[in-house]
Amino acid sequence: MFGEREIDGELAAVRAAYAPDAVVLNAATDFETLDPAAAEDLLLVTDSVDPLALDPSWLPDGAPDQLQRYVGSDFTVGLPGDGGVAWTTQTEPACVVVKPRLETSPDAFVDFLVAEAVVETSLGEPEQFVEFFGDRYRDLAAVTDPRIGPTGTYQLAVALYDAYLGLQTRDIFGTWADDYPDLYDAWADAGERLRSRVGGLSTELARGQTDFAAAAELACSAVKHGLELPSPFAALDTAAYGDHGADYAVRWAEKTFEQLD
């Protein structure tokens, strides 16, 4: 299921600097959530596994099946929304897994995604939004489910956690111009590609051309690039969010959805 991915140059230097023990792997098949049997194959390439023990009561009734599986007692890795690279700190050492869907992507872009995941494993933050929100996920769902449904709430939660991580990683990426110029350029280029799309979000929302969860996904992905965000997402690009985490995110959702009603 997994084979070690050969890395060199700037990417190898980033791993050495931020997470020297992390294992970078190629997955044989694409996945959203690895079932327990496949996840246990990580034991073949790591020293040990310490599965998460999460509280099922964090999830509201009607939460998507993927969340039910992830919060359950079985060892699982990954959730929809992870994209082409997933990472886990349930193993020792941490693992970064590259999915086959990236085989046709530019090498520079894939290297940046791997570098980003390596950095994220070093932050000491949860690997998924479920642990980030904890029992506050029920509060988030109580606000958002009536308007965007359980799947929309899931998508919004993924986006909100992406923004929270982005507040931390962008300060790191912004220092890479001298030491890791190719990775820095890939980060900057990704930001430029987002700029025009983010700039039109308020208009698209007002016209009903995009739904709220999809708009949040785009806006929150721009946080890691330090782009100017439109209302109501600009309130997520603040030190207060970095300081207060899930409590701030839930309060932001409450205020935002009050204004939408």
Mean pLDDT across all amino acids: 94
Structural domain count: 2
Low-confidence stretches: none
Strand content: 5-15%
Report the span from N to C terminus: 47 Å
Largest sheet: 4 strands, mixed
Order of helices and strands: EHEHEHEEEHHHHHHH
Question: Helix amount, in percent?
Answer: 40-55%
Q: Which strand order does the major sheet show?
A: 1-2-6-4
Number of helices: 10
Quaternary status? single chain
Total strands: the figure is 6
**Coarse structural class:** alpha+beta
Can you walk through the features of this model?
By secondary structure, this protein is of the alpha+beta class. The chain has two domains: 1-125, no CATH class; 128-261, no CATH class. Helix content is 53%, strand content 8%. The chain contains ten helices and six strands. The chain has helices at 9-18, 36-39, 65-71, 107-121, 129-133, 136-173, 181-199, 201-206, 212-223, 239-260; strands at residues 2-4, 23-27, 48-49, 85-88, 91-92, 95-98. The strands form two sheets. The chain has a four-stranded mixed sheet, covered by helices on one side. It has a two-stranded antiparallel sheet with strand order 3-5. The longest helix has 38 residues, at 136-173. The relative contact order is 0.12. Pfam families: DUF7089 (PF23363). It comes from Haloarcula onubensis. This is ABC transporter substrate-binding protein.
